[in-house]
Amino acid sequence: MAQVKWNKKAEKIFLERVLYSYHEFGTTTAQKWHTERKRIEHQLEGFPESYPPEFLTRNRKLLYRSCHIMTRFKIVYHYSKTSDIVRIVDIWDTIQHPENLKKRIK
Length: 106
Known about the structure:
This protein is an alpha+beta fold. Helix content is 42%, strand content 25%. It starts with a strand and ends with a helix.
């Protein structure tokens, strides 16, 4: 069973989205962010390679994968088979320009 770890940037973006959702849409939407996160983390723990490779990062050394959260956002991660760790590196708002999103992954 893989271990899921969030980097600081991804965690910060997640919390910002939850707070924004709470203030703009209320408790139910903010709670849905947490529910979706738990569902995705559970999926990644058992099946870390179940989501498709992220097309925008196809020329990178690491194989990045992504999954949708809250319809318009993507969680971007990579999986290390040797350490059995899923590292969540970013959350993308899919309405942003793809070139800007690609630059955020280092």
